[in-house]
Q: What sequence folds into this?
């Protein structure tokens, strides 16, 4: 079945460091891909998305590119801030659209000043 | 202002009691979902519904029940059969049409057994 694998955390970075959180997926066809962010005690918020190969999703300085050849959707940010400390989830939506999103296990990011 | 509202934010349950978590959305979404999140863990799907009066079990449905009598509402009941119900519960919704819509989440309900 469809699955998402993302790097295990926690990831600890100093402020202004470069961030990469790896995400790879297994799916038939061409799924849509998403990154969600969860701050402590809150629900998940959509951070960015991409719906077809080579699409780049971007928001709040975060970027991720849909790579069909490597089945990857890695999240990157050039300069992290303390306020970026959160848990990040990679997810896919199967092409049929009639099944629930498939989530990775989440990666906790801590940014220290 | 459109969105998903979960209530209450915090809920305490005595052992042996059933409790119901509320989830309401005004986004006119067809599909709704319930997830469970344990500390330091990912999301596990409990139940989902893609249309009124129909729902399917997710990966961990045992000890839970749902109903979908109205499009905007998808309450979750945690029954006494759920042996370890203490967790953070998240409700989500999305458009059922097409394969490319994201899910929108509520703010969650933290359930604690006392």
A:
């Amino acid at each position: 079945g469809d699955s998402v694998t993302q790097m295990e955390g926690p990831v600890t970075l100093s402020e202004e460091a470069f961030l990469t959180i790896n995400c790879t997926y297994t799916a038939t066809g061409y799924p849509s891909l998403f990154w969600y962010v969860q701050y402590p005690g809150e629900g998940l918020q959509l951070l960015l998305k991409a719906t077809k190969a080579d699409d780049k999703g971007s928001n709040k300085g975060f970027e991720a590119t849909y790579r069909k050849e490597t089945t990857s959707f890695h999240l990157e940010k050039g300069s992290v801030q303390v306020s970026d400390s959160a848990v990040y989830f990679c997810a896919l939506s199967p092409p049929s659209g009639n099944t629930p999103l498939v989530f990775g296990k989440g990666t906790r990011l801590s940014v220290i000043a | 202002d459109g969105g998903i509202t979960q209530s209450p934010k915090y809920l305490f349950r005595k052992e042996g009691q059933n409790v119901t978590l509320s989830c309401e959305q005004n986004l006119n979404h067809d599909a709704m979902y319930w997830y469970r999140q344990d500390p330091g863990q990912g999301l596990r799907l409990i139940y989902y519904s893609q249309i009124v009066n129909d729902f399917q079990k997710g990966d961990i449905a045992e000890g839970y029940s749902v109903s979908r009598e109205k499009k905007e509402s998808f309450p979750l009941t945690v029954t006494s059969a759920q042996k370890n119900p203490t967790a953070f519960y998240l409700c989500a919704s999305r458009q059922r049409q097409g394969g490319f819509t994201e899910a929108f989440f509520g703010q969650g309900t933290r359930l604690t057994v006392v």
About this structure: Residues 64 and 75 of chain A are 5 Å apart (CA to CA). Chain A has no helices and twelve strands.
